[in-house]
Write the structure tokens for this entry.
Amino acid sequence: MGAIHHDVFSELVLLTKLFFVVPVSSATAERSFSAMRRLKTYLRSTMSTERLNSVTTLHVHKNHLNCVDDSEVIKDFVACNDVRMDIFGNNS
């Protein structure tokens, strides 16, 4: 009789773990696909997959972008290549 209770209890523990892992809704995934449909326009159809994924991620998580220091992003962007440095200069 004790082995049956142990089996039932172990199955109950497994079901509880699965319950806590399954997402409540698929809103985030749906929001990602909606954003991708809006972002993947004719003008952006030549965009690489990596860049499209990055733009989509930024769009979906735009509420987190308020914490980002724009001036640091701009400095990093300009510092990436010499042509940008020639055009925008070194405004450290």
About this structure: Residues 37 and 43 are 13 Å apart (CA to CA). The longest helix spans residues 2-21. Helices lie at 2-21, 27-39, 49-60, 70-79, 82-88.
